[in-house]
Every structure is written in C-alpha cells, then in structure tokens.
Amino acid sequence: MPPREEGKVFSATYSNVPVYECFVDVNSVMRRRSDDWINATHILKVADFDKPTRTRILEREVQKGVHEKIQGGFGRFQGTWIPLSDGRALAEKHGVFDKLVAILDYVPGDRSPPPAPKHTVSAPSKPRANRQPVANRRVQGKPARAPTASQGDRYGALNTVAEEYDPRFAHEDTPDNATLASDLYADEYADASQYTNPRKRRRFEDMLSPQDEQHQLWAEELLDYFMLLESPSDPHAQPPMPPPGINLDRPIDDKGHTALHWAAAMGDLNVVKTLIERGASIDCLSKGGETPLMRAVNFTNSYDKQSMERLAGWLIRTVAYTEWFGSTVFHIIAASTSSKSKYACARYYIDTILNRMSEVFSPLEIERILNIQDRSGDTAITIAARNGARKCVRSLIGRNAAVDIPNNEGETADELIVQLNHRRRDGRHRQLSSSPFQLDPSIAGGNASHPQLHTLAGPHPSGPSSQRQRPS
C-alpha cells in the first residue's frame, strides 16, 4: 500500500457521497461535502481509543446529541456522523484537535482538493460478478430492504460491531448495497497482517469449500436479519433457517461470536430456541471467553423484552463460567451499574438469574458462584457496592453473597457498603440542615451518632456468628 500524505485534505466519493478525507497515522477521517458533517468514529480512532472504549464514548456522549449512524455501503464510510461543530468539540475533548486541524478547519474553495490516493472519484462501485449481495439472496416472496442510515439505532449497544470496522481492511470495490454482515464475516477470515484488495478477496472466496460457502451465506443472512431489517418483530422478517448439517458453533463474526451469542444478545427467543433445538452448544465461547448468557447481559434487549426468564432457563447451566478476566455473568451485570440508567436492568437480570439458579443449584453452590473473584479480586457484590447499586447489593446478600472477601487492594464489599451508608446519611443530614426546624440529635434517634447506618446493610457483624449484612 502506498504511503498516505498525512495532514493533507483530499476529495473522494464513497457510496455515492462526496467527502473530504485526510489521513492521520493509519486512520482515515472523513467530512461530508454536502453538509460538513464529520465521522465521529474516525475521530475516536485517531484518539487511539480501543473498540470497546469508542463504543462507550459514542453511546454515552456522541449519540445523545444530533447524529446519524451509517451502517450500509462502503466500509470506510460507516460510523456515527455528527455536525462539524460537534466534531471539533469531540476532537478538543480527546486531545486530537491538532492532528485533525487540516480537515476540521478546511474551507472549501473554487478548486476541489486532489483525489485521495488509490481512489477513483467518478466511477461508481461495481458489484462482484460472482456474488450477489445478501439483500438480493433472500427467499422468494420476502421483501428485501436496503440498509439505511438509522436502521441500527434500535439495537443500542449492539452497534458495537459497526463501530469496530477497521478501515485498513476496506476494499475499494465493495458494492453500495452490500450489507454490514457481509463485511463482518469476510473479516473473520481476513489476514490482519496485510491490506486486502479486490483480487485477493475474490481469490479467497474461490478457495472456500461448498460447506464454507453455505455457512458464510447463512451467517451473512442471519446478521442481516439481526442488524438491517426494520424490526425483528416485523411479520415479514423471518430469520434464515440453518442449512442441514451446518456447524452451529462456528463463529459468525470476527469476535468469535456464534449465532447463539447473537440471538441471546438480541433477546430473540425464537432464534435461541431454534438454535438449541438444532444442536447449538449453550457453552460455546467467543474469543474473549464469553458464553451466550454473558453476551445477553451485556445488553438491555432481554430487559426491554422481559425475556430473561426464559433465556436464563435455557442457558442457566453455564452460569458458573468465567471469561478471560475471570468475570462471571454477575460480574458483568454488576459492572453495568456504573451507569445509573442500567440499575433497573441489572436488578432484573440478577433477580431473574438467581431465581433460575435456585431451580438447579443448591444454596451452597449458589454462594460459591456468587463469591467467585475476577483477576482484580473483586466479587460481583464488591463491584455493585462500589457503583452504589443498592438494590443489586440487596439481591446478592439475599443469596448469602459474602461481603468480607478482600480484593487485590484489600478492599471488601463490607467496607464499600459502610461508605455507601455514610454517603446516604450525609446526604440526608444536608437535607435536614436546610430546614429551619432542627431536631436535637439526642432526640432524632439512637443511631444519630453511630458510625454505621442500617438503611442498606442492617447491623454490622461483630463476629463469625453474626448474621451477614442484609439490605432492608
């Protein structure tokens, strides 16, 4: 691949949309010529955030404002687009404004910038002769839908996959109506150490066995169903059935997620049930060691659909599994409470899974699972207490989760609960002091000067025979 001229603005056309484009390190940054909107995903890549961090920033900061999400068409063009003024603010906030000043401050003149290297502006992309886009390979009688800019919004955090597309593996002849699923699955087999070009891509496809081609086609159509249709509940939208004899435990994306991982994450009970009935393993692991149940609790779809009870019933045998960091399903749920907006979802997941566990596991086995420590030494209740998720702490203590297990820093859930109680007490005292009617502390209650409150955890244990702290 020829070297790019960094800091220089070029003109280009992707998916029939004219853009200004510049290159910083190995990253392409685009700004649309029609409305001056800029690709926020590109800005965050220049800031050198990893993929999960980019996704969190996009969800919590960028996508709360005016934005447009592009998922179909040319791979490098995909991402979250925002007004130029918001793009400038985003670049400044994350310390990359100076790197992007050329495209952020570029003022269009009478003459268009030179074409981007290895890019033909005028010639539209041509579809491959030997391969139909996924949207055109549907079962006859079912309407095909072309991807739009906003179709991914309904899936919330599942747009992670779209944001993770690496422009270094973009191929110049990608047809405009190729689906995101097609790009994702092709990347599963791409050699990450070299850039891909159309001829190499076609040679690779020619090398696939008939069984591989069959699996690839089904995987693309399944991802298309999950990500590009208007709604999985649309009466016209039917998931593709697995071909006979297909390996259902084979990954369908570049993170090693199987079809069951995706169906669980989407909270799609019909697809989950079909896959399990056809032999999909409920304990298949992604590259990060995640089970389908872990994948499900990473997202709110099963909360929105209130489908976790049935889903957990099918997958409960994997509840004791740990992923690469040593986290269980409960660690993952507890970690989600770092966002207060996830409190209700986390409580629902914890209570539902615990209830399902009680049907299968003994109380002692449930305690053992709840007390598993990750690589930081944290148990799930330690994380929930640290995040102030009081109701989640109550649920875990209700199943005898230990509060006295120290993590690698010597910190225990017990200490965090006491701190949480103090913060709550201090908040109440501040409210009380703002009133013109003050109560005498000696009258306000016997615990007015006690170092601990009982609002969350009850009486503090004084010895081995004491009851565990239990929220009221």
Automatic annotation (TrEMBL):
GO terms for cellular component: MBF transcription complex; SBF transcription complex. Keywords: ANK repeat, Conidiation, Repeat, Sporulation. One of its GO terms (molecular function) is DNA binding. It comes from the Eukaryota. Residues 9-115 form the HTH APSES-type domain. The keyword Electron transport does not apply. Pfam families: Ank, Ank_2, KilA-N. Transmembrane segments: none annotated. Residues 110-156, 425-472 are annotated as: Disordered. Residues 458-472 have a biased composition (Low complexity). The keyword Plastid does not apply. One of its GO terms (biological process) is conidium formation. ANK repeats lie at residues 255-287, 376-408. PANTHER family: ASPARAGINASE (PTHR43828), TRANSCRIPTION FACTOR MBP1 (PTHR43828:SF15). This is HTH APSES-type domain-containing protein. It comes from Elsinoe batatas.
